[in-house]
Amino acid sequence: MGMFDPIKGFGVTFSTMFKKVVTEQYPEEFHPTAPRYRARHQLNRHPDGLEKCVGCELCAWACPADAIFVEGGDNTEEERYSPGERYGKDYQINYLRCIGCGLCVEACPTRSLTMINFYELADDDRRKLIYTKEDLMAPLLPGMEEPPHPMRLGDDEQDYYTYGPELERDRSGKDEEALQ
Amino acid sequence: MTIAPEEQQTQVPEGHVKLTIDGQEVIAPEGELVIRTAERIGTVIPRFCDHPLLDPAGACRQCLVEVEVNGRAMPKPQASCTIAVADGMVVQTQKSSEVANKAQEGVMELLLINHPLDCPICDKGGECPLQNQAMAHGRATSRFVDTKRTFPKPLSISSQVLLDRERCVQCQRCTRFSEQIAGDPFIEMLERGPSQQVGTAETSDIVDSASHTSAGEPFQSYFSGNTIQICPVGALTSAEYRFRSRPFDLVSAPSVCEHCAAGCAQRTDFRRGKVMRRLAGEDPEVNEEWDCDKGRFAFRYAAARDRIRKPLVRDSGDGVLREASWTEALRVTSEALLGARAGAGVGVLSGGRLTVEDAYAYAKFARVALGTNDIDFRARAHSDEELEFLTGRVLGTSPGSAVSYADIEKAPAVLCVAFEPEEESPIVFLRLRKSARDRGTRVFHIGQWATPAVRKTFGELLTCAPGAEAAVLDGIAEHASDLDEALRTDGALVLVGERAAEVPGLFAAVDSLVRRTGARAAWVPRRAGERGSLDAGAAPTLLPGGIRYDDERARNELESLWGLEGGALPARRGRDTAGMLAAAARGELDALVVGGVDPDDLPDPEGALRALRAAGFVLSIEMRPSPVTELADVVLPIAPADEKSGSYLNWEGRSRGFEVTLAGTGALPDCRLLDTLAVEMDVDLFTQTPAAAAADLAKVCELRGSTATGQPVEAGSSARRELGTGQVWLATWRELIDNASLQVDEPYLAGTARRAVLRLSPATAQRFGIERGKPASVHTELGTLTLPAELTDMPDDVVWVPARSPVSVRSALGAGHGAAVGLAAASTEGDRG
């Protein structure tokens, strides 16, 4: 053992002392993820606020962790939540089970289910980690209206699926105009 | 046996042919369809329209194969579901023939052209033959770029069935089922060519009377649920099950229908402890693959909000029922019953819906714990004559020794006496129709008017006034020689319904008729538990295992088997339901144990309520509140059929065992409850579980072998009254869908109930000044029942009303089948029921 060896060990310490700190002070300081980072799920809406979810349960079928529970419901003319016949009456994701694999998003036939950046899925209560439909629904953007309400963008669900993207673009175009 | 061995020369049995399928030699019975022969050797040819129980149609063209007969190939691929095997035929399926494979792929592509991409919202998704075959045999992409044909959807063609014409592949399974099996051709193929569609007269939007198949009626069939089950796409879906769940959510359990004595095998699908739907199970010997709408759709009573889940005890202070612990409820009950046993005695009304095991527990409880023969399962009109007939001809019979479904199918002639097959035992009705349609069985009905069942079984109706059925039977030899001759042929049957108990002398007449002609008689009760209760000894004259109450030796053997002291079993003949209620009303019974009996079903509902009020103590063993609950001192909750195991004996005497579907609900089967109650009374029943009860009953049955005595039946007193002025004879029987207690919370099912009408002959109507469609009323001194009148071809001075739709005839009039009642035209403002 050499004479300078004890001091050598501090070499790393001293050299690091003057470098830029990479430690993140989470949760005191929040750092946003990359924009395309996929964490918590979200149930999207059509441009008029109707739900995209049709309650088909394909997400639940695809889920390898059995984390999703869906129950379908029947739309009526008086009480409409989504275009077409069927909507998701009950929708729950158990984040104690979810492994974030995203197979549910791939399975979704209406692009209702997508994932957003929000990743803070930890709690000390089981019940708080079972997200229900209210927790998962996308927020209402300008121009959207909370369902139930009649179809505003067309006569039937075909209009929504066929022209949905166009309508979306039109609407966002208008929003930009409005902003300018 | 079917696969030819390797030797060159194979023996072809008589009536069989040898053919080659995919290079493999097969021996098949003549007339077999190629699609089934292929299936037997393990080659599944895709199909949609083919169904083994329906006539071949060749409608979907999915099962195309290449066929070569006599060395000559047929020019085009053939539908294997319509072509019968022939000697030397060479068949190449999609497995060995590129032509067949391409043809099938082509058909699939054409079928999918107009099929909407609806799978995510379609109830069939996940269990859809079209979906499965499109995945297995179809192309990955569609070449069709044009607009699909669309229809408005969904159309409700009855309250139960929803039609989506876009999804339909025109396989005609539903229309063929309705026409061939059920005999209700309300649904038909309409239009031609590309606009061909399934529909009812209501859905057809063209005004061409030629394409209307029925007179504007919706799809009102008691069997419409089967069309939903056999639809190979999602064109017909169930309104009740709409969007409730997906196949992968469901846990399926085999079950047995608890609604009637047919004993249908069923499949119960549940999700998270709740039954979502029921499907017909497969049992070729019983229900084949069908069931009735009541069995399929009526299951929500078990999840009804008002179901009793905790014991209720009437508070001694304020006289109100309050929830109590099991310990308290059992203590109160046992003290009261012990007191009543020491006093005037206890009567047991066990009801007609018990499993064999539960009925046995009731029977043993009455004899051992209560020391009485006062127990009767018959919660309906009944007679001693009926009990004699049951002891003489029905007790202990089984399909091997007595009439079975197979016998109905083979019978040359069947006589239905006081029995409405379609209303009271729908699967018996389907068999009658099948044998009449396929084998030309002659079906005779003795009744008051030509019910739909008479027409659909191609039947012959012998009309008579209600109550005169016995006289008709006695007069057969004289007045209906062709029927007499038909009943003398080998295999002829006489089916007797529960209504026979209301006609004095009818069981004796049936007994002497079968003695005279050699036809065999079968009793077809309505309720699922009646046959089992008879064999399990829940009857006033019969102990378990068919031991008569007055057979002292057998009773002593039973005493030693049950571990009782000699002479412990009661030797006095028990009272029947009416006898017990009358005794209780007179104060000759101190307590009544009532197991799921609705007073409205009893011969005298008013008297029954009086008796319940008069009895010192009433124990109600129930699932949901009933008029008995209001008068009970203690109410003990029990498990519905889904939450217990057990077995029913169906009308044939066939044991229909079932396991627990919804486990762990904590609801107790009757046998467990009675066992615990008996322990509280210091008696052991050994019926802790249905399995234990069944084992105990099996030991009892070994004692005497539980057989029908074959003794002749003596006619009961049949003093016929004369009609007074303004009176007519009342004919009445239960309909399949009515206001029964197991049909609560079922709006979809109730929608297909038959319209409640009052039927009478035109001459009678004229005499009483009643017009068609206008309300008419029947009345007795107790009350009035008003219904719209319908003119029907039936004997004069007879009026028919449904027994429990909308209200119980028994409770409204205090009268039943064969009674004399007053008839009058009701004012138009009166309620139309």
From TrEMBL, chain A:
Protein name: NADH-quinone oxidoreductase subunit I
Broad class of the protein's primary localization: membrane
EC number: 7.1.1.-
Molecular function per GO: 4 iron, 4 sulfur cluster binding; iron ion binding; NADH dehydrogenase (quinone) (non-electrogenic) activity; quinone binding
One record GO biological process: aerobic respiration
Domain of life the protein comes from: Bacteria
Species of origin: Haloechinothrix alba
Pfam family, one: Fer4_7
Enzyme class at the top of the EC tree: translocase
Stretches assigned to the 4Fe-4S ferredoxin-type domain: 43-73, 89-118
Protein family per UniProt: Belongs to the complex I 23 kDa subunit family.
InterPro entries: 4Fe4S_Fe-S-bd, 4Fe4S_Fe_S_CS, NADH_quinone_OxRdtase_chainI
One CC-aspect GO term: plasma membrane
Localization (cell): Cell membrane
Subunit structure comment from the entry: NDH-1 is composed of 14 different subunits. Subunits NuoA, H, J, K, L, M, N constitute the membrane sector of the complex.
Cofactor note: Binds 2 [4Fe-4S] clusters per subunit.
Protein topology in the membrane: Peripheral membrane protein
Function: NDH-1 shuttles electrons from NADH, via FMN and iron-sulfur (Fe-S) centers, to quinones in the respiratory chain. The immediate electron acceptor for the enzyme in this species is believed to be ubiquinone. Couples the redox reaction to proton translocation (for every two electrons transferred, four hydrogen ions are translocated across the cytoplasmic membrane), and thus conserves the redox energy in a proton gradient.
Cofactor: [4Fe-4S] cluster
Source taxonomy: Bacteria, Bacillati, Actinomycetota, Actinomycetes, Pseudonocardiales
Reaction catalysis annotation: a quinone + NADH + 5 H(+)(in) = a quinol + NAD(+) + 4 H(+)(out)
Biased segments, Basic and acidic residues type: 146-155, 166-180
Keywords linked to the UniProt accession: 4Fe-4S, Cell membrane, Iron, Iron-sulfur, Membrane, Metal-binding, NAD, Quinone, Repeat, Translocase, Ubiquinone
Binding site for [4Fe-4S] cluster 1: C53, C56, C59, C108
NCBIfam families recorded: NuoI, PRK05888.1-3
Region spans: Disordered: 141-180
UniProt-annotated binding residues for [4Fe-4S] cluster 2: C63, C98, C101, C104
From TrEMBL, chain B:
Function of the molecule: NDH-1 shuttles electrons from NADH, via FMN and iron-sulfur (Fe-S) centers, to quinones in the respiratory chain. Couples the redox reaction to proton translocation (for every two electrons transferred, four hydrogen ions are translocated across the cytoplasmic membrane), and thus conserves the redox energy in a proton gradient.
EC number(s) given by UniProt: 7.1.1.-
CDD domains: fer2
Domain 2Fe-2S ferredoxin-type: 15-97
Any Pfam family the entry gives: Molydop_binding
Keywords: 2Fe-2S, 4Fe-4S, Iron, Iron-sulfur, Metal-binding, NAD, Quinone, Translocase
Cofactor entry: [4Fe-4S] cluster; [2Fe-2S] cluster
Catalytic activities: a quinone + NADH + 5 H(+)(in) = a quinol + NAD(+) + 4 H(+)(out)
Gene3D superfamilies: 3.10.20.740, 3.30.70.20, 3.40.50.740, ADC-like domains (2.20.25.90), Dimethylsulfoxide Reductase, domain 2 (3.40.228.10)
Domain called 4Fe-4S Mo/W bis-MGD-type: residue spans: 250-306
Family: Belongs to the complex I 75 kDa subunit family.
Protein name: NADH-quinone oxidoreductase
GO BP terms: ATP synthesis coupled electron transport
Naturally occurring in which organism (per UniProt): Haloechinothrix alba
Cofactor remark from the record: Binds 1 [2Fe-2S] cluster per subunit.
Residue ranges occupied by any 4Fe-4S His(Cys)3-ligated-type domain in the UniProt entry: 99-138
GO CC terms in record: membrane
MF GO annotations: 2 iron, 2 sulfur cluster binding; 4 iron, 4 sulfur cluster binding; metal ion binding; molybdopterin cofactor binding; NADH dehydrogenase (ubiquinone) activity; NADH dehydrogenase activity; quinone binding
Enzyme class: translocase
